[in-house]
């Protein structure tokens, strides 16, 4: 009921005593007020039990005893929790180390890399480049040239920020760039769906085995989505002990061949159990 240990029992005893005719005394208070008073007094005594450790005074010896018992109870809970933790740890060997899952915290370099002058990120179909610009740089101060196979970004004063070939083709007409919060943001669309191991041809490649190569299901081609759905359905069928899609297709073919010309089973009731399919 939410009471600390012993409070519920003490509350019941006090109420019983107040209702005992031997202990009954005339009072001008209604029964509801008397019950509320008993309740408040009982709970108030228990609130004193949970006093902070730096308290210098206590009301009486009963409070000290109750506080001691309450401390023992909390200590028992802590001990039980520690025992449970030890039991959980005992399930694994002492030298067990959980697998390291790569986490890419910086979205500007997601599946990409951080370079000296720029940072790039990618999905299977897109590229995003982030370049930190000098203070107070405006769009008119930049010259951005994006072609299908190369990219060039330089300031009007002649300083070159990026100028190199791309390892793969992009859709130059679909490229977009803008300036936001002192950064040049460039968005590129890939011609082919593939993971790039570098943004520029002269750049050090990244390890594609360490990137997040997962893709949302709705981004896959329709035939791939259909195949994934079929695999999921087949797995559910296996768990239920039911035939998979391949088994159903094979059964349909067998039914057609059952009554075909030259079949030894022609005219008989279909019964696949008579066949031994390896």
How would you portray this structure in words?
With 278 residues, this protein is of the alpha+beta class. It contains 5 helices and 8 strands. The chain has helices spanning 7-19, 31-49, 61-89, 222-240, 245-258; strands at 113-114, 119-122, 126-132, 142-146, 150-155, 160-165, 176-180, 183-189. The chain has a 5-stranded antiparallel β-sheet with strand order 1-2-3-8-7, with no helix packed on it. A 3-stranded antiparallel β-sheet has the order 4-5-6, with no helix packed on it. Strand 2 and strand 3 (126-132) form a beta hairpin. The model is unreliable at 46-58 and 66-70 (pLDDT under 50). One of its GO terms (molecular function) is unfolded protein binding.
Number of domains: 3
Order of helices and strands: HHHEEEEEEEEHH
What is the SS-derived class? alpha+beta
What is the residue-averaged pLDDT? 75
Binned strand content = 15-25%
Q: Can you count the beta strands?
A: 8
Largest sheet: 5 strands, antiparallel
CATH T-level fold name of the largest domain: Immunoglobulin-like
Overall body shape: flat
- Would you identify the regions where 5 or more consecutive residues have pLDDT less than 50? 46-58, 66-70
What is the CATH architecture term of the largest domain?
Sandwich
Radius of gyration based on Cα positions = 38 Å
| CATH level 1 name of the largest domain | Mainly Beta
User: Portion of residues in helices?
Assistant: 25-40%
Q: Helix tally?
A: 5
Task: Give the termini separation.
Answer: 65 Å
Task: Order the strands across the largest sheet as they lie in space.
Answer: 1-2-3-8-7
